[in-house]
């Protein structure tokens, strides 16, 4: 693609405001997924057992009515009895009793809960079976709520976005490289070689995707690598047909004949003339390929064949949310929202690039 055509495509794209809005949305989502988990204040894998399935909101937890139940659960794990709880602002004064002397090491459970800080012992009986301690309260805000284990859903969605976008870009890049090489070679070869290569594509098209994934389970464990291999192995087929069609229309042009007359090999003609002149359709198709890959990954993760714990993806979160849709609908709405916005933005950007790079316009 020449510099003049590239500049013309940029000007066309700059006038397409919906495509620019889609591009801005994708940049914001990518930045949020990249740096967001470190800014939320909640590690994605951190479990808060006392705030399970908390609804989205700006309220800080624990609320005043949640302090005593949370402390009672911790006291049970500490094997002590909670006699009195006096809350004063962001601090709470506890009176604990036990049948045996209270081991101070049990107070480590308080900061591990994530809602309370280190305890300071103020009074202790001579036999050690009764003591008074002051504990600071750590306020936590969960903008998108928490899941069934008490993990912050916003942090989980952003961390899942890293995996989903990585799978989408990596598998799409692999499919792009395979499809461009296969389609260019098939189109340039022509004749029986082209017919044989296209029949192989038809065979691969006829193979059901889920059946292919089940076959891969014989060699690979369910997880990230299975998704990458499965998606990259089938998503290059459309790209190969697009590049083959473009190559068939270009190989009879005068500049290709001139390249052969100058003594260039077929490999050089493909690399220096055929592929650069098909970049417009390739870029547009590649942009539309990424959302397809992300959707396939979500489908596999929904079936339990994709990303496995402790890693997560939008597909995994959607599968978890679908099982709790009645009691905690936000567990489904949050990751589904990220996925829908990303897919719509990628598709709209692909349409805009296709229009901007179309030489007929």
From TrEMBL:
- The lineage's top-level taxon is Bacteria
Ranges for the ABC transmembrane type-1 domain?
161-350
**Membrane topology (UniProt):** Multi-pass membrane protein
Q: Which InterPro entries match?
A: BP-dependent_transpt_permease, MetI-like, MetI-like_sf, OppC_N
Q: What is its main location?
A: membrane
What stretches pass through the bilayer? 163-185, 197-218
Q: Where in the cell is it found?
A: Cell inner membrane; Cell membrane
**Keyword Ligase carried by entry:** no
The similarity annotation says: Belongs to the binding-protein-dependent transport system permease family. OppBC subfamily.
Q: CDD domains from the xrefs?
A: TM_PBP2
- Pfam name, any one: BPD_transp_1
Protein name in the entry: Oligopeptide transport system permease protein OppC
Swiss-Prot/TrEMBL keywords: Cell inner membrane, Cell membrane, Membrane, Peptide transport, Protein transport, Transmembrane, Transmembrane helix, Transport
SUPFAM superfamilies from the UniProt entry: MetI-like
């Amino acid at each position: 693609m020449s510099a003049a055509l590239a500049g013309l495509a940029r000007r066309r794209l700059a006038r397409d405001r919906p495509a620019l809005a889609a591009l801005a949305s994708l940049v914001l989502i990518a930045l949020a997924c990249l740096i967001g988990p470190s800014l939320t204040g909640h590690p994605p894998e951190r479990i808060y057992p006392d705030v399970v399935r908390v609804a989205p909101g700006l309220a800080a937890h624990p609320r005043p009515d949640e302090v005593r139940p949370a402390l009672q659960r911790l006291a049970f794990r500490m094997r002590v009895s909670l006699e009195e709880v006096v809350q004063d602002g962001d601090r709470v004064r506890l009176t604990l009793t036990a049948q045996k002397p209270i081991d101070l090491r049990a107070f480590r459970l308080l900061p591990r809960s994530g809602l309370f800080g280190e305890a300071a012992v103020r009074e202790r009986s001579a036999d050690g079976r009764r003591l008074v301690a002051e504990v600071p309260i750590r306020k936590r805000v969960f903008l998108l709520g928490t899941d069934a284990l008490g993990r912050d859903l916003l942090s989980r969605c952003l961390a899942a976005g890293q995996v989903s976008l990585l799978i989408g870009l990596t598998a799409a890049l692999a499919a792009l490289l395979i499809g461009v090489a296969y389609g260019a070679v098939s189109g340039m070869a022509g004749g029986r070689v082209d017919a044989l290569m296209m029949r192989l594509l038809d065979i691969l098209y006829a193979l059901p995707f889920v059946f292919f994934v089940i076959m891969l389970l014989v060699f690979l464990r369910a997880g990230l690598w299975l998704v990458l291999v499965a998606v990259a192995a089938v998503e290059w087929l459309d790209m190969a047909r697009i590049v083959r069609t473009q190559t068939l229309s270009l190989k009879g042009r005068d500049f290709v004949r001139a390249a052969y007359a100058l003594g260039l090999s077929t490999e050089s003609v493909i690399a220096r003339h055929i592929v650069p002149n098909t970049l417009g359709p390739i870029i547009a198709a590649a942009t539309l390929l990424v959302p397809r890959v992300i959707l396939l990954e979500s489908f596999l993760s929904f079936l339990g064949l994709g990303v496995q714990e402790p890693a997560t993806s939008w597909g995994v979160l959607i599968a978890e949310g679908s099982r709790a849709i009645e009691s905690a609908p936000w567990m489904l709405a949050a990751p589904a929202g990220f996925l829908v916005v990303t897919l719509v933005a990628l598709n709209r950007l692909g349409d805009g690039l296709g229009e901007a790079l179309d030489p007929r316009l």
